[in-house]
Specification:
Layout (H helix, E strand, L loop, with lengths): L13 H13 L7 E2 L11 H18 L4 H4 L10 H10 L4 H18 L3 H13 L11 H14 L10 E7 H15 L8 E6 L4 H4 L9 E6 L10 H4 L7 E7 L11 H13 L4 E5 L12 H4 L4 E6 L11 E7 L3 H7 L3 H11 L11 H8 L13 H15 L5 H19 L15 E5 H9 L1 H9 L3 H12 L1 E2 L1 E2 L9 E5 L5 H24 L5
Parallel strand pairs: 1-10, 3-4, 3-5, 5-6, 6-7
Antiparallel strand pairs: 2-8, 7-8, 9-12, 11-12
Bound molecules: pyridoxal-5'-phosphate.
Pyridoxal-5'-phosphate binds next to α8.
């Protein structure tokens, strides 16, 4: 380790660097490897999963009601008539009162709140659980969509007064949503090589890696958050969005890794720029919105311009389920842009979508996303698997039924308590700002060094480019693996800690280790302050 040239790792993506760090951290078998780089939470929602199992069990019984030939190896498709009554009978005899009650409460809620017929809902849910039919419509099952829309509206800071209705496309997590969006923008001539895409940085690293890929050939414009200003966008940075060559603006809100939501003032500043740039397309990734206080999405403040990506992965501890949605308002910039394309491009797109309909120009952008996700030709088998859509809907209902915010309060306090633990063990006091989410923290060595030992030491740390070395030392000496902020377009040498995936005791250890290594750097510095 002492003679290693750490600059050789500078260009690795943070996730690849993590794999190297894991090797080092795991090299001593005595030691436990702590991977605090992962965003995957170590907590997960129980009740909506119980509800899924109970519905699946009930669905099997429903299938067994018909077609019991051949030794009961086959069931038939479920029947709508009387299905709710049969569920109540099933529920009465069931030991898992929590699971069946969740379903019963959900049935009452959607009838009351959305006016959905109970039998219709349960019939869709049972069919979804069985996975016995292709997802129809491929974009999203109709009742699932209505329920998830209500959840998205509530969590994203709606209701959307004046913004009109919106539609959802259910995807295999937020990452599939991102992939589909870039592919469809490209396939529909809404972005082309040489165009500029603005990224609110620091940002989740795939957003940095997708635009320069050869198939997209997009130039990145940095819209940089100001750490000194609570990780908001300064007005001078937002001015860059006025450049007409900037076609798309991608934002992660609340941010990853700084983990701060955009303030109301910042949302307004963006809306003001957008008022002068009505053609600007915005992609907002609001995966962490549910962890923020009083969250409002750009989907609400700039409804026409914005595609919203939401994922159930983090809040419900469900990364393995692969559940996300893309939300688009009915009145939107993307459809306008399609209508305004040159005739030559329209003709090409007529050919592209001619297998779907005789009126390809009327295919909305959101339905193009669905078709493009299966190279158009396989549109009829597109869509998220129906059991996934059912679990997604039950997660959404968990949010909607959380009337006293007990789930929400608990989820937020899990990550926030861990955040305070890490810093307390470094000897640093922290407070909760109005925009702080604290799902991640950027442990900024220079700032912490400055707080503990003054500016001169901080300058020494900066000059010595200790960031990557710090990561390797931490992995080598303690088994703690953290991700470098650098891969996320973070400027200062800092490391990303996820507050979601380790125990409280682990966070104590991370805080103490970080402090110890900094103390050692300081001892080195004290011997010879002149040498970086
Ligand atoms: C974790 C994360 C995702 C990934 O979501 P999945 O639904 O698990 O694919 C997307 N965007 C951001 C900003 C994330 O942090």
């Amino acid at each position: 380790m002492p003679d290693t040239d750490f600059s050789q790792y500078a260009d690795l993506s943070p996730f690849e660097l993590k794999d190297m760090l894991l090797q080092i951290a795991g090299s001593d078998h005595e030691r436990m490897m702590l991977n605090a780089g992962r965003g995957n939470p170590n907590f997960l929602a129980i009740r909506p999963r119980r509800a899924f199992l109970r519905l699946s069990e009930f669905a099997i019984e429903e299938a067994e009601r018909s077609y019991g030939y051949f030794d009961n190896q086959f069931g038939g498709l479920p029947e709508r008539e009387g299905i709710v009554d049969r569920f109540h009978a099933f529920a009465r005899g069931h030991a898992d009162t929590e699971g069946v009650r969740f379903v019963q409460t959900a049935i009452s809620f959607i009838t009351d709140r959305l006016g959905i017929d109970r039998d219709d809902f349960l019939f869709e849910a049972v069919g979804a659980a069985l996975g016995s039919s292709y997802p129809t419509p491929p974009r999203m099952l109709a009742i699932c969509e209505q329920i998830v829309k209500l959840y998205v509206e509530e969590e994203m800071g709606g209701p959307h007064t004046g913004a009109g209705g919106f539609s959802l496309f259910a995807t295999e997590g937020g990452t599939a949503a991102m992939t589909y969006i870039f592919q469809s923008l490209q396939a529909n001539h809404l972005i082309a090589p040489g165009d500029k895409v603005a990224l609110g940085t620091p940002i989740f690293s795939p957003y940095l890696e997708i635009p320069p890929l050869e198939s997209f050939g997009l130039d990145i414009v940095d819209i940089r958050m100001d750490e000194e200003a609570d990780w908001q966008f300064p007005a001078s940075e937002l001015e860059k969005l006025r450049d007409p060559a900037v076609k798309v603006f991608c934002v992660v809100n609340p941010s990853n890794p700084p983990s701060a939501k955009l303030s109301d003032a910042c949302l307004k500043a963006i809306a003001d720029v957008v008022a002068d740039r009505p053609d600007l397309m915005i992609v907002t990734d609001d995966v962490y919105g549910t962890f923020a206080d009083d969250f409002r999405s750009l989907f609400v403040t700039c409804p026409r311009n914005t595609l919203c990506v939401y994922s159930f992965s983090k809040y419900f501890g469900a990364t393995g389920w692969r559940l996300g949605v893309i939300a688009v308002h009915d009145d939107n910039r993307f459809d306008d842009a399609l209508a305004a394309l040159p005739e030559k491009d329209k003709q090409r797109l007529d050919a592209r979508y001619s297998s779907l309909t005789t009126t390809p120009r009327a295919v909305r952008f959101i339905d193009r996303l669905v078709a493009d996700s299966r190279v158009v030709a396989l549109n009829h088998t597109a869509g998220l698997s129906t059991p996934q859509q059912l679990q997604m809907t039950l997660f959404a209902l968990n949010g909607l039924l959380d009337r006293h915010n007990s789930y929400k309060t608990a989820a937020k306090s899990i990550v926030r308590d861990r955040f305070h633990t890490v810093y307390a063990n470094m000897g640093i006091t922290t407070k909760d700002g109005a925009n702080d989410v604290n799902y991640y923290s950027l442990v900024d060595l220079v700032r912490i060094g400055a707080k503990l030992y003054g500016e001169a030491f901080a300058d020494w740390l900066t000059a010595g480019e200790r960031g990557t070395e710090f990561l390797f030392r931490l992995a080598d000496e303690t088994g703690v693996v953290l991700l470098p902020g650098k891969g996320f377009e973070v400027v200062d040498p800092s490391v990303r800690i996820s507050l979601a995936n380790l125990t409280q005791a682990n966070y104590v250890q991370i805080g103490q280790c970080t402090r110890r290594i900094l103390d050692e750097y300081h001892a080195e510095y004290s011997k010879d302050p002149g040498a970086a």
